[in-house]
Amino acid sequence: MRADFFGPQGDTRWNQADLLSNCKHFTHRELDIRDRTGVAALVESLKPDAVVHTAAQPSHDLAAQRPFDDFDVNAVGTLNLVEAVRQHAPEAPFVHFSTNKVYGDAPNLISMKELELRWDYADENYLNGIPESFTIDQSKHSLFGASKVGADVVVQEYGRYFGMSTCCLRGGCLTGPGHSGVQLHGFLSYLVKTNLLGGQYTVFGYKGKQVRDNIHSLDVARFVERFIEAPRSGEVYNLGGGKANSCSILEAFEMVESISGKKMNWEYSEIARQGDHICYYSDLTKMKAHYPGWDISKGLVSTIEEIVASWKVRAS
């Protein structure tokens, strides 16, 4: 549904074709996660050793326009899948890709300081970022954030109530050279694409100083691998790049310009996205404590360099 949600520019079929061509053990099965019977039949036939659930509608703005599609994909689709695993492959570790938007806009209530190019936390309790113990209640999430809260809590419950091996990965900006970024989703990828291919980037509120942490897809996959090797029950992890891989939009402009050699064409809107974070980066302490063999291996600059190279190839 990527093309349905975001148009042809957000379609990921090109990546599917690449996997089919270059990964001999990859098999694609076309299936709508909202198809409860179809999902159950597939899991029953495969009896998977592990399940990594990455299907989602990932946009704040689109959720408000299409609330039923958003909830049916994010919340009901997740229930369809995790229940199918419970019925037909209950020993399989279940990794669910949640989002840091389950915290709603509550991180905006943390005391902050305004620096030249970014906002940052002034409260010493959050110098390393947002921990998994942070509240997900009593805040504005956007409808997308709300549907993902539903999915997140369901996956936790299947771990705690049924004893399954489950985890929710509350991602920051998950990115890399394979990202099909569009305005509504895919911060760094879309920013690089706009810089390289032309067009105008719109900054929504907060003076362009809003901060995100960015994690390369390789480090995401490496953590998933660690969890599957040593699964736990009903866990949550804030999966992001941490403070070291965080940047504001203005800082991202400077980094991309220095790598591409092209000036960023951008405009500013005073209207911030509802439920959006002023500053967010993940505290990775729990992840590293539970899985000491894992750490960030791809820095922010090298990640942007890979994204730049990828868009140049796709544009040629």
Please give a structural write-up:
The chain has helices spanning 2-6, 13-22, 36-46, 60-65, 67-88, 142-162, 187-197, 217-229, 249-260, 285-290, 300-315; strands at residues 51-53, 94-97, 112-114, 119-121, 166-169, 173-175, 201-204, 211-216, 235-237, 246-248, 266-269. It is α/β, with parallel strands linked by helices and 316 residues long. The chain has a single domain (2-315), classed as Rossmann fold (3-Layer(aba) Sandwich). The strands form four sheets. Strands 1-2-5-9 form a four-stranded parallel sheet, with helices on both faces. Helix 7 (187-197) crosses helix 11 and helix 9 (249-260) packs across helix 11 (300-315). The model has no long low-confidence stretch (mean pLDDT 95).
Major β-sheet, in short? 4 strands, parallel
Helical proportion, percent range:
40-55%
The CATH topology name reads Rossmann fold
SSE topology string = HHHEHHEEEHEEHEEHEEHEHH
Strand content: 5-15%
Q: First CA to last CA: what distance?
A: 26 Å
CATH arch. level architecture: 3-Layer(aba) Sandwich
**What is the count of structural domains?**
1
Structural class: alpha/beta
- The main sheet orders its strands as 1-2-5-9
Please identify which CATH superfamily we are dealing with. NAD(P)-binding Rossmann-like Domain
